[in-house]
User: Fold these one by one.
Assistant:
Number 1:
Amino acid sequence: TFALDQLVRDGDLTVKQRNELLVEMTDEVADLVLEHNRAQTLALMIARRQALPMINVHARYLDALEADGRLDRALEALPNDRQINERQSAGSGLRAPEFAVMIAYSKNADVEEVLASDVPDDPVLDDDLLHSFPTPLRTRFPDIIRGHRLRREIVATRLVNNMVNLAGISFDHRMIEDTGASIADVTRAFVASRNIFGFREMWREIDSLSGIELDTQLELFLDARRLAERGTMWLLRHRRPPLDIGATIDTFAASIAELDSALDHVVSGHVANAIADARDGRTAAGVSADLAARSARWPWMHTGFDIVELAESEQTPLADTATTYWAVFESFDLEWLWDGIGGLPRSTRWQAQARGALRDDLMSVLAELARLVMRSDHDSVARWIGSNERAVGRVISMHTEIRRAETADLTTLSVAVRQLRNLTLGAAL
């Protein structure tokens, strides 16, 4: 009501008009509150579904909150490390009421950190501010909203709610563990990734689905979440803080949208088959053809950051760059390496960091190999491989030996990626 009272004081509304506007907005205000409550309930449900596979992450997050003096486990009746270990042995994790406590502490901590930074002042978040208010107020009086005395608090609260509800209760903790970034830096990267991929729009579209199994819907939520998470991670690892949110969105959003539309036409082999299988499976599960096709591409779209940077640095058309990038992937038969890294354990903090770093290394090597091909005089990856037959042969031979092992682990997969890295250093143009 502060904004409306200010309009009355400024003479823009009479008291009668103020009261009429309040009545007009009543239903939408209720909808805004219910929308947040529903989003938080959904976040809790997804967390509960992931309670066992994510139990070690949740345990570490509880430890971190307690170590920072933000949480008293005994006071909140949360399990200690011994009790968590017992639950894990019994095949269970944290419970819904415990996640409810965690999400409250997580949001409070994040809002405090965001308010202590300049994140709420970023012009990119103007939309987040305006959409905290009902439509009549934000369309007729946007400037009074922008001048609200609690503007920063409103922005920080809405942004943190959005981040935690969509990306997950432990999202910020995992980003900090993997990169050492601050909450403010994680939030900046999340906003950029969110806007680049249209994460909020994806989430709303999935949330509005009806007539499909809950497991299918949750799978879609998690795939959308992983895409936004991988985008956030890429930005944290490849951009010096503090991230310029607006410039980053301007750099990547249109190009990644173009890559999304072109992906089906530039991939082949394993990637094409994986996308087709995911699309057909979701169509059969009752997902609309359009959403099934788009969601099938989500597991691969985080590569777009490297492809966009490569196209810009080499001054090559985006579609041609993407074609070369994925041709390298297929020509070197890297499906086994990609999947092997994805299958590495991540129960401990160090396993998760090693897995993420190795995936990042593989993507970097892919981009560098594509760069070598584009700079060469050869018109295809196959011809480039032919001109570097001896060096490539050594890599393929080593990879074949590694693949013959019964299981792939961090050591062998690291060697495989290193062999590719050596190729980028020693191959001829």
Note: The radius of gyration is 24 Å.
Number 2:
Amino acid sequence: MHVRFGFVAMSVTLEKASPSKSVTLKMYREITQKDPKAALEKIIRTARENLNNTLRLLRHCKANQVSMYRFSSKLIPLATHPELKEWNYVKDLQSELAEIGRFIRENGMRVSFHPDHYTLINSPKDEVFVSSINDLAHHCRLLQAMGLDERARLVIHVGGGYNDKENSLERFIENWARVPRGIAKRITLENDDKTFTANETLNLCEKLQLPMVLDIHHFQCNHEEGSALEQLYPRFAATWQGTELPPKAHVSSPKDNINYRSHHDYVDADRVYAFLRMARQYTHTLDVMVEAKQKDEAMFRLVRDISAKKGVTQRSLAALEL
């Protein structure tokens, strides 16, 4: 089985390359009172810096043979805020967005966004649903401006349980019919660490014909008694058929026994190795996103640690063969 590894948004080895620099609403309003034009220019400058740093990060990926990367969702400050609804940020940032997309296509990279936790398709409040669609549309708009097709995905959770998980799942299905097609074709669902288990998320994905991202740390935190990854894996992998993409998993390790849901600086190689040995029975390829505080360094360390184990060959700094 061929396994590619990627990391999330930031690098701890590339200096001064944050893609998430912000302009607060308070700051924007204060500048606006004096000079509205200057306030917007401040946001545009910050967005350009974030996009330029994103391109630097992608070049860093290429130099280190990393072909999977997750964008920061904070690339464009205040992009979805009502006070800037008239701002056509795609037009102002078209050159930077196009260059990022061109680099990704030329180097065959797999990229994604993971919109924030407040994106809730199954919310019982219509205003929250509408806000969630606006946020998803924003992420899709960026991918379209980059010239990336639907292989560039958005990863979201099912949403809240609202004290009635069964009805919350049904409401997701009902609301899904309201999701615009251009957004729907990019969505993947991930099991979460508190509410919807991998099995529940997988059932929903199968009903709606959506690919699923399997988070093995979340599985440890939240699963039905007696449930095993071996039981779920073949069905999970099958959700990716027809997408032109390998199945995708997220890996991380608990910060400690008290903060079990929080991410550690690094990832336990033994647990991931055991997972990969199981997975190779069912798939020939797998993409693994490393979610750890030490970002790219944690990913590189994980690949090195697993490569030292029996039956593993390191193909590059970010790829293994089992």
Note: The chain has a mean pLDDT of 96.
